[in-house]
Each structure stands twice: as C-alpha cells, then as structure tokens.
Amino acid sequence: MLKVPEHQVAGHKARNGVLGPLIDDSGKFYKPLQNNTRGSTEQSFYTSLCDIPQPARSFFPAFHGTRVLDASDGSGPHPHLVLEDLLSGYAKPSVMDVKIGSRTWHLGESEDYINKCLEKDRHSSSIPLGFRISGVKDSVSHWEPTRKFLQCLSAEGVALVLKKFVSSNADVDASDPDCAFAKEVFGNVLERLVELKEWFEDQTLYHFYSCSVLVVYDKKGKGKVLVKLIDFAHVVAANATIDHNFLGGLCSFIKFVKDILASLHQ
C-alpha cells in the first residue's frame, strides 16, 4: 500500500491535492517525474549511475527503474522514479536536507527559473555560505522549523540549527543546545563528507545544481548515520571541468561541522 512519507522535510509533499512522492512498506520511494526537461534529466542521471565508480556511488540512492502509478494529486496515472527509501528502518529519524552550492541554477535554465532561483539564493545563506538548510526535523521532540525561518538564517543561525539537530533539547527555545549527539553523529557525518569532497575534487562527469546532502540518524534506535545525495533534476555534463560551485559549498558545510565538533572540547 502506498502512503505519504511521514518524515519528508523538503520538496513538494503529497498532501492536499499536490503531486509528491510516495513510499511503500518494502523500502521503496516513488518520486513523480516532472513533466519537463527536469524529469528527463533526473531519469537520465539515475540510469547513468553505473558511470560513477565505487565508493562514490554509495552516496546515491539505489535506483530500481520507473513505474506508472496513480498520482497523489488525483490526476491519474503518472510515471515515477522507483528509488531506495532512505528513511526505511528508522523508527524516530532526525532528518536534515542541506542544499549545496552558492548557485542553484545553470545557464541552460529558463530566464524565469533563473530569476526565481536568484531570489531564493540572495535571501538565504546560499550565496554567503555556499549552502542552505532546506529542511530539518526531529521526530522525537517534533522540532521542525518552517522553511521561511530556515531561508532567512545568518551564519550564526545556521550554526545554531546544526547544533540543535544533534541535541536532546532541540525543542527548547534557547540559544544553548546541549549537542548531546554531536560527537557520534557529526563525527560520522564529517567522515562521509570528507570522502564526498575527495570525489568532487577529482570528478569531472557532472555538475550538480540544486542538489542536496541528506543527513539522517535515529536518537531512539541503533540505526547508522546516513549521508546521501538527493535531487538530480538540474544535473548537467561537466565537460571535463571540476564542479567548483558544489565543491565550494560542500567545503563550507564541512567547516561548520568541524567547528561544532571542535567546540565540544572547549
């Protein structure tokens, strides 16, 4: 039986007549293909995952082809990407979606889309920091800042949200989160992000625009800390060049994580 993902923190949600992703009980995530070049771009990227060598391929959700399903908005049969449900098996996941890159658009986009992205980039931490937190949710405390709040964060605000993400008192309206889970969670996250950075320092296959790093862990369970890349509707060929836009944002995100870990010893 298909259902709406309970712990989705960013993107269009399949509620109130909106076209969005669905999941089942077998660990599959069904993402509706967009009816434009973005849909075909993302499908083409997933079908070319075999071009990405291991261990870098482990950063991407498993791809199980496409399937036509009844759309969540009631519009009838619609093609969906069949992907790995990254949150399957987590009882009470804490989830964070971090959009990487100071620029979330590429020159092949329409003028209207570029202007829309520029507006968001300019009024968020994307341009000054090279990344922005698109969504975050703690399933234990039910702390879930609004997207509008997250879009307006300063560098200090970003650091505070990151600290709350790994704290046991995230739901408390205070500027002193306890970072109770920071060592274990961000220690693992840092290790994976450094591995990802090493790949981006060499890879010249793709440029990843408007792509996110998804971080997941479970405060109540023994589940592993998960770090994956998601959202590939704006991936373009790199033409044998380094993706400095993504790499720069990733390095900035790594520095924030390092600074939080370093603060634990002060």
Keywords:
266 residues, alpha+beta, D-amino Acid Aminotransferase, Chain A, domain 1, 2 domains, 7 helices, 10 strands, globular, nucleotide-binding, EC 2.7.1.140, inositol-1,4,5-trisphosphate 3-kinase activity, EC 2.7.1.151
Textual characterization of the structure:
This protein is an alpha+beta fold. The protein has two domains: 22-84, no CATH class; 93-263, 2-Layer Sandwich (D-amino Acid Aminotransferase, Chain A, domain 1). It contains seven helices and ten strands. It has helices spanning 37-47, 111-122, 126-129, 147-151, 155-165, 182-200, 244-263; strands at residues 22-23, 28-32, 63-70, 77-84, 93-100, 131-138, 206-208, 211-218, 226-230, 235-237. The strands form three sheets. Strands 1-2-4-3 form a four-stranded antiparallel β-sheet, with helices on one face. Strands 6-5-8-9 form a four-stranded antiparallel β-sheet. Strand 3 (63-70) and strand 4 form a beta hairpin. The termini are far apart.
Give the helices and strands, then pairings:
Layout: E1 22-23, E2 28-32, H1 37-47, E3 63-70, E4 77-84, E5 93-100, H2 111-122, H3 126-129, E6 131-138, H4 147-151, H5 155-165, H6 182-200, E7 206-208, E8 211-218, E9 226-230, E10 235-237, H7 244-263
Helix pairs in contact: 6-7
